[in-house]
Amino acid sequence: MSTALVEARLDLDQAGLADQLERLASMRGWTVQEALDRALHTGVERELEYAEKMRKLREIQDEIARLPELAPGFTDKDLYDEDGLPVL
Questions:
Q1: 29: how many CB neighbours lie within 10 A of its CB?
Q2: Cα–Cα dist 80/83, whole Å
Q3: Dihedral of CA 2/8/11/16: which sign?
Q4: Can you tell me the distance from the alpha carbon of 80 to that of 84, in angstroms, rounded to the nearest whole number?
């Protein structure tokens, strides 16, 4: 696919994206279309992986939030004596 056709359809030149696509294609030995396809695929895959990691993180946070508080009222007084030294 020619650069002119890509620019005409998506106006990629406005943000310098056509140059970036051509550069990536040249570096990898791909066509501009392959560069666009692979870049989009990679971006989508990364976003899906990130979303899955965030979902798992929220699950862990929810599990932790449901745990009972083991030491209610735990304060610095429980860690330090009246002189400010750690309680061993």
A1: 8
A2: 8
A3: positive
A4: 5
